[in-house]
Automatic annotation (TrEMBL):
Alphabetical list of Pfam families matching this protein: SBP_bac_5
Keywords for this protein: Signal
The keyword Signal belongs to this UniProt entry's keyword annotation: yes
KW ATP-binding (keyword) present: no
GO-annotated cellular components: ATP-binding cassette (ABC) transporter complex; periplasmic space
Protein name per UniProt: ABC transporter substrate-binding protein
Occurrences of domain Solute-binding protein family (ranges): 81-417
Biological classification of the source: Bacteria, Bacillati, Actinomycetota, Actinomycetes, Kitasatosporales
One function term, GO molecular function aspect: peptide transmembrane transporter activity
Organism superkingdom: Bacteria
InterPro entries linked: Peptide/Ni-bd, SBP_5, SBP_5_dom
Length: 497
């Protein structure tokens, strides 16, 4: 039963929010206002895991704060449009990009072809590479003061979309002084990252020389608050202006006009370890798939605020359902007496509860299930190394390029950098390569769905549901982005009245 929208949160939750947020925002919980307006206070879910390096998933924080920018951005349909590059053209394996004039980095240096080449080369030669470059050999060269050529080993129709990934942000030379990449004072966006306090907070100030026009807010104060109840309480108590990833369990406790819900390309997926243990057996993978009752999880855990998965790609890609055909799978084996370890993380508030429901469902089918739950930063390495028999993940399916082929390759190719299933299959690899090489349009979409079917046929992963963005905006917040791709949050147009 859904609770009334205006029910007060427990005092303990409000106290937790105050404890977590004080120190970044003003001590009395009010917004910090200067002569030129009010700073935007943001409560973020996950703290930085890699020092805000743009070569990691931390890049999406830089993008959501509008401090780091890319050559290309994506429109609502996922098509490429100009950003730091004003135009581009293709000639076989080589794409030529014209670089925007009049852009300066936050340290005052100018954007030119050499700066672009430096950033792209650092990403292309990183170990590991940013996942948007999985399976892609990319070389960038200056062809003039404001012209850059990008050449790939094989003809790649998605180069502009790839270059929209926040992991390929263009930063000033100062960011690359040493082995790590430090984005402080090195972006080109409307807000300059001026201070990072470990995994607790970050501060950004308006960059008045921004090429796209002066931002409306004087700055952004960010606090990292992994606890979902505390984030929601911070919105209710007035200690935060924008709260990302409001837990489903908390959404009903907030006034309806403070909450925005947007379907997003994010799937809750149970990855099964195909390399060792119980799920090396295709029949036991099939047994796990048949044991899962995702509909009860959507109804019970998500209170109906999610969409039941028919595949890895959800309603945020409306073309997927119409192209999908029935998949032939292995018959279920007998799991009686087989012990498995199921892992997940606490950073997304619903996942521990989903994992507990899965534990019960799998045990009912005959498995013996041990559940292991930690913060994501403390569990990712074990998940990638194959330490779990099954791992529950909330996974963005078009986060990087606006196209799902990169996600499918990263997660299910033999050499994919995020292959939690430890999955290796030559026919699937071939389907993934075909999807990645097919020109954009209907043919590519059909190839993507064929690759999805190949993965599902092997039961390397069991898709459960597709999430929705639930974001909280306090009264007085104007122009906050509600982005299903989770690339934008505070933009130059965002301010607090």
């Amino acid at each position: 039963m859904r609770l009334p929208a205006r029910r007060l949160l427990p005092l303990t939750a409000l106290t937790a929010a105050s404890t977590l947020l004080t120190g970044c925002f003003t001590g009395d919980g009010t917004a910090s206002a200067g002569a030129e307006g009010t700073r935007v206070r943001v409560a973020m879910m996950q703290p930085p895991r890699s020092g805000l390096s743009p070569l990691s998933d931390d890049a999406f924080k830089l993008s959501r704060w509008s401090t780091a920018e890319t050559l290309v951005k994506l429109d609502a349909e996922g098509d490429a449009e100009p950003a730091l590059a004003t135009s581009w053209r293709q000639n076989g394996r080589t794409w030529t990009f014209e670089i925007r004039d009049g852009v300066t980095f936050h340290d005052g240096t100018r954007l030119d072809a050499d700066a672009v080449v430096r950033s792209l080369t650092r990403a292309a030669t990183a170990a590991p590479k940013p996942r948007i470059l999985d399976g892609v050999d990319l070389t960038a060269k200056a062809a003039g003061a404001r012209t850059v050529t990008v050449t790939t080993a094989a003809e790649d129709p998605l180069v502009p979309q790839r270059l929209s990934s926040p992991q390929l942000s263009i930063l000033a030379a100062r960011a690359y002084d040493g082995r790590t990449v430090n984005p402080v004072g090195a972006g080109t966006g409307p807000f300059e990252l001026t201070q990072v306090n470990g995994t607790s907070s970050a501060t950004l100030d308006r960059y008045d020389a921004y090429w796209g026009g002066r931002a409306k807010a004087p700055g952004i104060d960010v606090r990292f608050v992994p606890d979902g109840t505390a984030r929601a309480a911070a919105l209710r108590s007035g200690e935060a202006d924008i709260v990302e990833a409001v837990p489903v369990s908390q959404a009903a406790l907030l006034d309806a006009d403070l909450v925005t819900e947007v379907p997003m390309p994010r799937t809750n997926t149970l990855y099964l370890n195909t390399a060792k243990g119980a799920f090396e057996d295709a029949g036991l993978r099939a047994a796990a798939r048949e044991a899962v009752d995702a509909a009860s999880i959507v109804k019970g855990v998500y209170e109906g605020r999610a969409d039941l998965a028919e595949g890895l790609l959800g309603p945020a890609l409306p073309w997927a359902a119409g192209l999908r055909e029935p998949v032939t799978r292995a018959k279920a084996g007998n799991p009686a007496g087989r012990s498995i370890t199921l892992g997940t993380f606490t950073d997304r508030a619903e996942l521990p509860e989903v994992a507990a429901a899965l534990q019960q469902q799998l045990q009912k089918a005959g498995f013996t299930v041990r559940l292991e739950v930690r913060e994501y930063a403390a569990i990712e390495a074990d998940a990638l190394s194959g330490a779990f028999d099954a791992f529950l993940l909330s996974r963005a399916t078009v986060l990087d390029s606006g196209d799902p082929a990169a996600y499918l390759y990263s997660d299910f190719a033999s050499d994919g950098s995020f292959n939690l299933s430890r999955f290796t299959d030559r026919s699937v690899d071939a389907a993934l390569r075909k999807a990645g090489a097919t020109p954009t349009g209907d043919a590519r979409r059909r190839a993507v769905i064929a690759a999805e079917a190949a993965v599902l046929a092997a039961d390397a992963a069991v898709p459960l549901l597709h999430e929705r963005v639930i974001q909280g905006d306090a009264p007085g917040v104007v122009g906050a982005a509600h982005d299903p791709r989770e690339r934008e949050l505070v933009t130059a147009a965002t301010y607090v009245e």
